[in-house]
Structures
1.
Amino acid sequence: MSTILELQGVTKAYDQYTVVDNFNLQVTMGELRCLLGPNGAGKTTTMDLITGRQKMTSGKVIFNGRNISGMTEHRIVQQGIGRKFQIPAVFKDLTVRDNLQVAFTRTTNPFMNMVEFGRGGGRARLQEVVELVGLEKRLDELGGNLSHGETQWLEIGMVLTQNPKLLLMDEPTAGMTEQETQKTSEIFNRLKGEHTLIVVEHDMTFVREIADIITLMHLGKTLAEGPMDEVENNPKVREVYLGTEGISDAA
Amino acid sequence: MHKTNLYHDKRAQWAVYAIFFGVLALLPVWMGDDPFTLNQYARYGVFGILALSVSLVWGFGGILSLGQGIAFGMAAYGMAATMQMQYQDPVNDPIPSFMLTNELTALPTVWEPFWNTSVGLILSMGIPVLFFTIFGILIFQARLAGAFVAIMTLAMLGAWYNMAYDMQPFTAGFNGISPPSAFKAFGVEVDPYSSMIYWVSLGVLAALTVSTKLLLQSKFGTIIQAIRDDAERARFLGYNVAFYQVVVFALGGLIAALGGMVWVIIVQYVSPTALEIFFSITIVIWAAVGGRMSLFGAIFGAIFINAAQSYVGDEFQATWFIILGTIFIVVVRFLPKGLAGLFEYAISFVPNPLPAPRTSVNSDIAK
């Protein structure tokens, strides 16, 4: 299996405070990686650095054999990286259908899109995604009228419509009911293999169900990495979370 | 549900356009050919064009431009120069009289291209678009949005106003340029006091409205609304947000520029008032009152307010702007989507009598 994403010594520092500190990460094609860690560990910042939303102080991000550090956000996305935000972001004044159609990016060129009237391509993809996330009956609803859970689904659906090689999911189950969370883990399990996923999550039941390998971050560094049981029993982890019930509680 | 409202039915929207423009086209037949009324109504057409540009740029593109007057004014000066040079004689009388009064002894180089009417028309249209493209790149590459865009466009408008005012030998300064003869093209003279001027103005408005409507129904139209809602989300779907915004801004400039050109054909006059800050803000008010998120609403707002101004404004001369300001405040506070939004709400109680569209995009998925 080949490496699809590699972070080499990635660092993000504000004046005196280093949020991500010489962080290294290797993700294999088709795997589902969970990024864990307490608040302030640098998980979301790491996602920002991968997607170019924040500029890194030093280090390199290599995606699919290509150095993407320093590229603009839309260029990085066009390489095949999709992202779901921590605070769900959808287009509130557009219908669910239009939200998904905008996410179907066969071409991103404005002039090409002026003569694109939604016929042809995309229809099959839309059908597939809508069924997967269960918004069939909500297609004509405005994005702003959806419930919190539905908004999460829509955003996941949008990222899926993009069909990226690598999906970055920042807290995809936040605010979801148990059943919804269960359904999300089913989807994620179906996605891995074909897609590569990096998931930031706090729900340990969810993580247990989906993760191949966990990377535990602490103060911007890797504290431990490996399968769930191994990380849980790691003495360093126990030390950091001393007095607590282990990572499950900290998260 | 959202789509069952007749207001959102595309077929109903096109039908409204057809009826609206159809009725307006026949207006001269019914009301006779009082030249002053026709001239007056042709002016309303230009106000409609300007409101249309604001609706596209602000209502759909989310860019609050207070500088639509820049394109309008630039194009108006270009058109005035074209018409002025149609009047001048290359041999006997090559220099416009206002330049002679300003002690110029030769025609300025920037005026030379306007000897040729086609070149003059292309420049009147092209220079504003080019300017809006460059200005747009500066604004949107820096990811400015909201009030910052409004302030920058306003400041730029102020700069152009002063330029037109100060460069007296080239622009006739405060007095402005009044070409002595009507505009001629393809051997036809467009008499500004005739039904022809009315149809020219209405024709341009109708053509621009239909083109803009089609543009908004394309995927480009959906994407710019997506960017308006959440630029960051759109960016992380892979869209070059700044590129889209520059294109929208430049298209808005093009529409306003065409308005400026028609305006000068109608009034045979241009002065720095075209570049006045107050005028550009007024355009935004028309669109806001009518409904910036509806092309038709914005056009209606422009015509409605101007008609009100000429009929009611005569009675309340001094207080008209207070009335206008009050209307604006009421609309912003209680009707964020303008009169069109009020209509949208009202008609939502009426069931859509049209059968469900069969050919609409992806309608099969909804089942």
2.
Amino acid sequence: MITEVASNIPPGLIFIVGALLIPFIRGNMRSAYMLLLPLLGIWQLTQMDAGTFGTITIFGLETTHVRIDKLSLIFGYIFYVAAALGMIFAWHNKDLVEQASAIVYMGAAIGAIFAGDLITLFVYWELTAVASVFIIWAARTDRAYKAAMRYLIIQILSGVLLAAGAVVRAAENGSVDFGAIGLASPGGVFIILAFGIKCAFPLMHNWVQDAYPEATPTGTVFLSAFTTKLAVYALARGYAGTEELVWIGTVMAVFPIFYAVLENDLRRVLAYTLNNQLGFMVAGIGVGTTLAINGAVAHAFVGILYKALLFMSLGAVIHRVGTAKGSELGGLYKSMPLTTVFCLVGCASISAFPLFCGFITKSMIITAVAKEGYLVSFVLLLFASACVFHYVAIKIPHFAFFGQDSGKLCQEAPINMLLAMGIASFMCIGIGVYPDALFSLLPYPVHYVPYTTSHVVTILQLLAFSALAFAVVQRLGLYPLVQRSTMLDFDFSYRWIGSRAFGWLLSRGAIAWETMRDDMLSMLRNVIKTTIQFHGPDGIMARTAGLGVSAGAVMVLLFVLLVAVMS
Amino acid sequence: MSDPHHDHHPSPVPPEGGGKYYWLDDKTNRAKILWVLVAVCAGLIIADLFYHKHVVYDFENWFGFYGLFGFFLPVVLVLLAQALRKILMRDEDYYDH
């Protein structure tokens, strides 16, 4: 009975409705309640059968609120897992704004995953945008406020493009069904741009690096998991095998690494890596074979885990030390040994070390790219793999936990943070050691064998030599010094050129406005002057006339009327 | 951002980390790690002689290809990034005024 009811409630709604109760619960009870929601959600998903429900016809268009299949289920599971991890990590945080908006945000992302049509998708898509802005605002700093405004504008633009695409598609084929879309129609182009913004395609990417590092330590953990991976899901659903995505993904995997080498704020380094890991997924979706799609989805799955783990480890550092700037950290392994270990697990996972989750999934994508003959992409993705080890797996532990001792001493992270990082680490290693658990969730049957001598040795060569390169470059003093700085990225176009251009327009506009205002005022003055002339104390209309004249005027009027009526 | 319930120690303290001795504090131990890494790299390259590589492209079969690729390309990355840094780096509060 309960299971029957549960399997008819749209996933995600548990969160969105559940958020309404949050203000009425306080303290640890609220944290416990929030943790209960994703556990309920996971249980609900296990009760659901493949199929669709919640079909509603609006204006002759059929919308499907929920579609359950293997592709949506795997994203549903990992989103609930990420939600649970984030809530354990944020257990100590009693900020109502952040808690409530995080719940609604995650619920909206889960709802979007299960949306069967573009209109339902659009509603949840916009809800993720609006709810997530409050998570960034919850940091309550001036920088966060401004970054969130830019973030909101860009996210809403994505929603508008999605709505436009849905309308065009409805006009084209009379259906807003969300299946394979492709680039053949104009509607498909609008929709891929909408997905591309959320997926941080090159030149549409900067909101990630701009906004995510400005949120609170806990807020960034929530943000890192959902928006971009929702876009990966949407691309896998709508654009599998779209060749352009191979090239877009390759560029995405390569260019952020240059910024990651230079950036000082370590959470911003992670935001650039987030972008680079999305590149692997997008390239896999572009290849479109079953191995490539499996690889992309699996990489999104483990990417959520290790990215959350890395953001959590730096979140713990910020929580204790107050900063995540490479130039101010170092030697923290003495104070935070467990956090250091968990960070290293995240680093090993992201750089695809054997026995860690990234090894399994990234190699699926790279193998698929090679097998389909994309030689240039293959070499560039290999380059990105070697570099990701270099600039994340060594850079972050080096500058934060080892390296030059900053002399900062603090306590180990709180127990709830350690627990969340511990569970995430366990899952990263678990999937690396026993990948069949993940394989059984993937959309297509898996015939891929990750652990072959050839593969393990070649990857170890790649990584060991990359580490050696770091050591040599560091010893030779060639490694870029980390220092307090801002790196110009594409946001230069709207934060500098755009704001200057707008300022110029405003100043020109001000001149035009002044002129127009003066003209209008002098016109108004003329009107008043004329009015006074005629209606003023001495005006012709204000004069009083004698009784005889008045009577005469009335008689003339009556006479005119009489003549008019008679004739 | 920071937790008010726990004291931060912004003032510099001795590098020993509260009087404790850490193995990594010793410079010679750091050098040892580097030599272990060199040994691991050498071992991995030699291992190339003893197994059959499953590859898609021929160049992957070159002796030590992955090792050399993994060493030189990150160096290229760092050198290129150094050059980019001159163009792209601004003050931390560049956008704030």
3.
Amino acid sequence: MSDPVVRADALDLTFRTGDGPVQALKDVSLDIGRGEFVGFIGPSGCGKTTFLRCVAGLETPTGGTLTVNGMTPDEARRARAYGYVFQAAGLYPWRTIGGNVRLPLEIMGFSRAERARRVRETLALVELDGFEKKYPWQLSGGMQQRASIARALSFDADLLLMDEPFGALDEIVRDRLNEELLGLWDRTGKTMLFVTHSIPEAVYLSTRIVVMSPRPGRITDVIDSPLPRDRPLDIRDTPEFIRIAHRVREGLRAGMDAA
Amino acid sequence: MIDRPFLSAPGAGIGRSGRVALWVRARGLSVLPVLTVVAALLALWYLACIPMNAAQSVTDAARADIAVTPDSARDRRSMSGLALALANPGVAARSAFTQARPRLPAPHQVARELWATTALVSPTSNRSLIHHAWVTLSATLLGFVIGTGLGIVLATGIVHSRVMDLSVMPWAIVSQTVPIIAIAPMIIVVLYSIGIEGILPKAVISAYLSFFPAVVGMVKGLRSPDRMQLDLLRTYAASGAATFLKLRLPASLPYLFASLKIGIAASLVGAIVGELPTGAVAGLGARLLAGSYYGQTVQIWAALVAAAILAALAVGAIGVIERITLSRLGLRL
């Protein structure tokens, strides 16, 4: 394996709050290689989102080391090394879908022709071709979230950080988007960090599942998925899948009991 | 909907709450209630004219040797208008709406004066309300542009600098607690002493009143993007200027328009107040002042109504600009 994309070593993060310090991350060590799809799962408060924000340089760890592409997270952020997808689509209501996908390209100074090409291509990638001129409110929640993924993909960073992107969607839409996301990952070969609190989602998507538990936020189990790379939706009924899901559930329960 | 934080911005409804609902209702359903309310207000106005003008009506009748109660002028002086009107209902009602200098002019008298001083005289004439309205409006618009510009600049500074937030905002609030009627003469005197007169002192007073809503609205608007929106731009390593232009500014527009509507009305008040202490010869304020010097109540009311119409037109114009701007931005919900 080449140099890891994300390398965390004994990462600590303590927030100062009005009620005293809160340890959001404790001794988190993890290496993520190129092209991996790593799912982070755990109850709320386990630090999975905080870890993602640390990788993105949006939070600063108070201990340990963290590198992204061999740089500090802040340098990586300035080098625009990753795309970030938030829980809510957060599209600008005053911009069309195309305009929203174009936003990072404008900020990063791509040429006009290049912007148009990339908007067209990434919208096609998330199967939103033909919606370029529509406004966000004209799209369903699922389509809005796909547009926000296109926005994160448009400048073609090798690393995609996704923070419960499908959390607000209903299960039917979520299933479809999960399937599409796997296809997208397969086509682009990007490294994915995906935060979720759904066990089936984590097992279905991930090549590696990181189970976390709260108070303090820490890793309790890391599961290498034996599932094949090509995963139809009904793989979720196979004994293999159910066995992994069971192990995740056990890990979550153990973490809760220990806390 | 969590991912559309800006659409329900305060002020989005000012002047036209719920565009869709209004559109539906405007198709025939709402005309009758609106007309009913207007008619009721006019009826109330006419009714109020009777007791308000009763003293003059009864005195005129007594001079014309018509029997009135009470008989003696001294007794009548100690009575309220309402009591006089009740004692002499016929006399009071008959001449309540036709006096030359009534205490409260009837609507048709005001309308006739408005018509006579707009349609029947040349717009350049000194008697023309259009001329006076333009004098006031030009100062209003100049002051509004200065005040709004200043307000936006201050708001930008306040949002970006904690020092400005702590130092400018309290002064902005304090400035609005000083009665404009007290500070207007001082502004005019000070500016006159350094050789500035004419439209500018009035515009300064207008600006003084209109910068405040712009500051408050823009501070709120520029701060309206939530943490996630700001984090998104941080993940792009966007500069402060890009964050301002691409996120904060567009997000603040619905707030700005709400402020502009308040600001333009405040500007008009400022310009009128600015005309009062100068003994200005032109402008709606000058008309008000002249009317009160010479007891020309009809002229005062005509100027007041003209000012109200002007304010309605100005606010309506901003509403049209708002609708066009926001719909071109796609904010059409």
